[in-house]
Amino acid sequence: MGQHLGLPMWAFAAALSQLEGMTPKKLRIALLHEEPEDAWARAVCDSTTSDEVVARIFECCEHENIQVVSIADPLYPRALRYDPTPPAVLFYRGSLSALQQRRVGIVGTRSPTPSGVYTAREFGEQLAAHEIAVVSGLARGIDGAVHHGMKLHYDDVAHAGHGALGKPIGVVACGLDVVYPKSNAGLWEWVGENGLLLSEYGPGVQPEPYRFPQRNRIIAALSEVVVVVESRESGGSMLTVAEAIRRNIEVFAVPGSPRVASAGGTNLLIQQGCGPVTSVDDLFAALALDHRRESGSSYETRVSPDAHDHDVLLACTDGAVTLDHLVLLLNRPLHDIAVSLGRLEALGWVVDTNGWWEALMR
């Protein structure tokens, strides 16, 4: 405890992390060589002001239910402790025990296609069902979709007395009391209650653009494998890929249509040698797990299409097609096929991406 304030050492570590000019490297060195309170006393001169700063950060963390762990703490995550650039201080909600599960990082564009959203949600559901944690950035688009998928599975088994589930792990680029984006506020709360919400930034820190690449290195470091669902060639997800490669973490990508810009990055990754992922079974194999789904899996919850719509569905399974192409292929009236596509889309069997229809097969 602090000699003057009666505050825990983590409060001084948290205060140090917010000092102007305190780089991550300087902070790591300080915390690994002396007690946080001593490092704080060395870093500041005005004792009255400094006491108020530490007390204010302590009260804020307590009020916001934010826990703090420094790199000198035995509880600091092993996956980060030996990283080339480990964060010196971590702020979190939830439990660090989520990091004891097998972990898959899933990232992607903030502007995904319906197919990309579907794939991310499906991965999230199935990984949660097999006790595999999912690490993501809780951004709009793919990041949010994969954790929404996990939440769907949690909700499905809430009343079934299910045992262990894969944990959601969200790594964010701001203070945990600064929800970004606001549209994911409910998801932030759910992740913090059911898994682990993590940041290297203290309360009140805003999501400045330069913080996101820093965040991405933590996503990569916490992942055993990284999967890119959809990304442009210059998308932010490619920065996470670079961080994963730097750490010798295997990268996978979901192949997409060459007509869709948000698949440009994933298709490029596959061309460059990254493994393609077309189902969750590929992820089980990457983790050396034997969780292959059996035919007739309980994951299929969609209503089967009738015979009239089934022909249209089959015509969409070989790749994305246009409505005009389906008319020629099936020799049926345009209105008739359009109605079938509408029913199939409502049931979750097909998606429309800029006029190209594609089957969503499991």
UniProtKB/TrEMBL annotation:
Residues 68-286 form the Smf/DprA SLOG domain. Pfam families: DNA_processg_A. One of its GO terms (biological process) is DNA-mediated transformation. Transmembrane segments: none annotated. InterPro entries: DprA, DrpA_SLOG. Belongs to the DprA/Smf family. This is Unannotated protein. The lineage of its organism: unclassified sequences, metagenomes, ecological metagenomes.
